[in-house]
Amino acid sequence: MGGGLPPYLPLSRLVQAFYVRTPRRRTPVRTATLRLLRPLFRYSAMREAYVLRLIGRSFGPVLVERRD
After folding, report:
1. What value does the mean pLDDT take over residues 22-42?
2. How far apart are CA 48 and CA 54, in angstroms?
3. Which residue, of 25, 36, 47, 51, is most buried by count of CB atoms within 10 Å of its CB?
4. What is the 3-state secondary structure (H, E, C) of the chain?
5. Rounded CA separation 42/33 (Å)
6. What is the pLDDT of residues 42-62, one digit of tens each?
7. How much is the pTM?
8. Cβ-contact 47, 63 below 8 angstroms
9. How far apart are CA 67 and CA 13, in angstroms?
10. What are φ and ψ of residue 39, in 5° steps?
11. CB 66 within 8 Å of CB 29
């Protein structure tokens, strides 16, 4: 029989297995700006940053609160 990947492995897992991820750059923004963007962004505890809702896991900006 073939020595490939199991047929039940989802396509997204196949892509992740061969995709080299580079960390996305964090963009510091003011607290007031984060409040305005709250409907579009969610806080990701894993990243300790704000990411776009729905697609932020893979795409889009990563925002952090600016510390002055």
Report:
1. 92
2. 17
3. 51
4. CCCCCCCCCCHHHHHHHHCCCCCCCEEEECHHHHHHHCCCEEEECCCCEEEECCCCCCCCCEEEECCC
5. 13
6. 999 988 999 999 888 888 899
7. 0.65
8. no
9. 37
10. -65, -25
11. yes
